[in-house]
Amino acid sequence: MFKNSGVSLRPQDRGPAAKKASRRREPRRHTVSNGIDYNMIKRLKLLEQEKDFLLQGLDVVERARNWYLQQISNVNDKLDRVSKWDIPHSEYSMDAQHERLNFQMTRISEVNQHLNALMETSEKGFPIHMNLAVHQRSIYSAQKTATQTIQRLKNQNHALTEEIAKKSELITQLETEKSALIRELFHARTYPKKEPNDTTLW
């Protein structure tokens, strides 16, 4: 039996098998010539890009908040005027105001849905395969809203065209009647009728 001499072998003295096992345990790292981890650089760039997008989104949200507050203030002013029957003649017609409200409500609803979906996916995690589906739904929703808006505007334009045509006909009729009345008045002043017993000389 050989006794243990108490001398431990260094890693470089353990032979090819030990070196191969040691290399197998080390994680594979992609490095550039100066030894910096390439994956770390990519990760830093992605994080910086994410930060930039978040800052842009924050700026939009802050401007959106100011816009919402301004719109609420405008609506409160209109409510106050309506309650006092102080409605300017320059206000939109009911049809135009209803059209504007529908368009605005549709856009606000879409924005709220996208923001809620963004916050939910950020909290629960976002599957990669859902990216394309969300993008396609966004495009379809935007196209549908645009189509509906265009159709409503066409219908409104057609109705306004008919109303203008009717008013033009009415104006023409009134102008004709006015001309006839002026001719009758001129004729009556030029050739007044005499009463049977009237001896007044003209």
UniProtKB/TrEMBL annotation:
Gene3D superfamilies: Helix hairpin bin. Residues 20-31 have a biased composition (Basic residues). Pfam families: Suppressor_APC. It comes from the Eukaryota. Residues 143-184 form a coiled coil. The keyword Signal does not apply. This is Suppressor APC domain-containing protein 2. Keywords: Coiled coil. Transmembrane segments: none annotated. Residues 1-32 are annotated as: Disordered.
